[in-house]
Design brief:
With about 140 residues, the chain is mostly beta strands. The protein has a single domain, classed as Lipocalin (Beta Barrel). It contains two helices and nine strands; from the N terminus they run E-E-E-E-E-E-H-E-E-E-H. Strand 8 (about 110-115) and strand 9 (about 115-125) form a beta hairpin. It is globular. The two termini are about 20 Å apart. The model is unreliable at about 1-10 (pLDDT under 50). InterPro entries: DUF306_Meta_HslJ (IPR005184), HslJ-like_sf (IPR038670).
Length: about 140
């Protein structure tokens, strides 16, 4: 699947227009704990924008989904002071998404892999059942 920045068309087996929450993060096969009380949120909007958050600041920009590789062109990032642990986690996530991770999707689970790091995310509707969510992107 090759998708360019701009309007994206999702479908069966596509992460487009969905929001995901992390359920597992590993580095070199070992659990990488996130800051307590935080999760990774990732949204791929239909207008070609990727939004990620690791518990504090939000990062957004253009996204491409070329042949199983997630390309990201940073556009904007909020600059909220959240303390050193969350800020370090934000930096780690920003570095991860800019390294063009490979992506796969299996039903409602999106997996991103770059180097030895794997982030497994679940569709937000299943990760937070019963929660009120804003309309899907």
């Amino acid at each position: 699947m090759t998708v360019k920045y701009g309007p994206l068309i999702g479908g069966e087996g596509s992460p487009i227009g969905k929001t995901y929450l992390s359920v597992a993060v590993t580095e070199d096969g070992v659990d990488r704990p996130l800051v307590p009380g935080s999760r990774i949120l990732l949204t791929i909007r239909k207008d070609g924008v990727l939004i990620v958050r690791a518990g504090c600041n939000q990062l957004g920009g253009g996204v491409t989904l070329d042949d199983g590789v997630l390309g990201f062109v940073q556009g904007v990032q909020t600059q909220i002071g959240c303390g050193p642990e969350l800020e370090a986690q934000d930096d780690w996530l920003m570095d991860f998404v800019t390294r063009r991770p490979r992506w796969t999707i299996d039903a409602d689970t999106l997996t991103l892999i770059s180097g030895g790091t794997t982030i497994v995310l679940l569709d937000r509707r299943l990760a937070e059942p019963g929660e009120a969510h804003s309309p899907r992107a």
